[in-house]
Specification:
Number of helices: 15
Distance between the termini: 26 Å
Number of strands: 12
Strand content: 15-25%
Largest sheet: 7 strands, parallel
CATH architecture of the largest domain: 3-Layer(aba) Sandwich
């Protein structure tokens, strides 16, 4: 949750008495429960209907409302405006695909986006689309996903994984979609000729595909095991499929090279900041439209590289982390956090 470092800062602000956080998932509520904030109250977000959003606002009576990324809720926005509650869009994200969808109902869309008092886009593409969608006040402060959450970011490597993969050279293919596992497997076959103790870890974007992936890779005469099998002996294993939820970060901590999926197919790629934060080199395909500016930044730091063939994949692997570059990412995050708090405090102090 990229908002957490900001919440920690708000907790220190004596003028803020209560922070209401809404979400639509059980996982978010459990995370917040574990963190034991002093001022935070969690509620599930209401159905976006004029009646329900009105009741919600009448009960909680917020002084200011901050929405994240692409959370645009027409009924809630209208009721916020009706109650004169300032509305902020933080780390706004509008992709071309989303923008074209909103454009189909242009008049309605512009009437909704016009209700936003100030928007802080996470990239220049979003800034352009927000202007076209009739947001009057827009300011750039950076992408809050760069902010490192020092309070909850546990950099300690899982002991069992450390022991399991200690003697092996590894490559992680994460958030993979259909056909990208075969791409990674072909690269694996090339690397296996150079490194006998090499293994590829595949973390599919959709875990329910694990059995299908297993069958496809076995058809290539590769030895495949599931993470859930808790196999303690990986001798001769080619592919290790992570078939359980929420495990990516564990593997990023031991990874030296991570290929991020959704980038060979027309999907737009996945966010590379998290694996980069653990010192891994990032490989990706040509389709990274969802994170163009993040990848541009990582490319300038020589952290990421575009690949289009299994040979390029194999030749681009490294087996050593680059922690020096991690410091530069974290410094970028510190600057963005400082700017974000400064900007949000202006709005908060005006309303409290």
């Amino acid at each position: 949750m990229s908002i957490l470092p900001i919440i920690y800062e708000f907790e220190k602000n004596n003028s803020i008495k209560k922070i209401l956080i809404t979400s639509s998932t059980l996982s978010s509520s459990r995370i917040l429960e574990k963190l034991k904030f002093k001022k935070v109250v969690h509620q599930f977000y209401p159905i976006d209907h004029i009646y329900f959003s009105d009741k919600f606002l009448n009960y909680w009576k917020p002084s200011i409302a901050i929405f994240l990324e692409s959370e645009i809720w027409p009924c809630m926005f209208k009721n916020l405006k009706k109650n004169n509650i300032p509305l902020i869009l933080l780390n706004g994200r509008i992709t071309k695909k989303t923008y074209l969808r909103w454009l189909k109902i242009k008049k309605f869309s512009q009437s909704i986006f016009n209700l936003i008092d100030i928007a802080y886009p996470q990239n220049n593409e979003t800034k352009l689309y927000l202007k076209k969608l009739n947001v009057k006040k827009i300011q750039t402060i950076g992408n809050i996903k760069y902010i490192e959450n020092n309070k909850t970011l546990n950099k300690k490597v899982d002991n069992d994984l450390s022991i399991l993969f200690k003697q092996l050279k590894i490559c992680v293919a994460a958030s993979t979609h259909h056909t990208e596992e075969i791409f990674a497997a072909k690269a694996h076959l090339i690397l296996k000729k150079k490194h006998r103790n090499f293994i590829t870890i595949i973390i599919p974007r959709h875990v329910h595909r694990a059995n299908k992936i297993f069958e496809q890779l076995e058809a290539l005469n590769l030895k495949v095991v599931y993470h859930s099998s808790k196999n303690k002996n990986l001798n001769g294993v080619d592919i290790y499929i992570v078939d359980t939820f929420g495990e990516s970060k564990k593997f990023y901590k031991i990874a030296t090279t991570v290929f991020l999926g959704g980038s060979l197919i027309n999907h737009g790629g996945q966010n590379p900041i998290e694996p980069a934060r653990f010192g891994a080199k990032i490989l990706h395909g040509p389709n990274i439209g969802n994170f163009k500016e993040v990848y541009k930044y990582l490319k300038n730091l020589k952290i990421s590289k575009k690949i289009t063939t299994p040979i390029e994949f194999a030749n681009s692997n490294v087996f050593k982390k680059n922690m020096q570059k991690v410091g530069k990412i974290n410094n970028q995050g510190k600057i963005i956090l400082k700017k974000t708090i400064k900007e949000l405090n202006k709005s908060i102090n005006n309303e409290l």
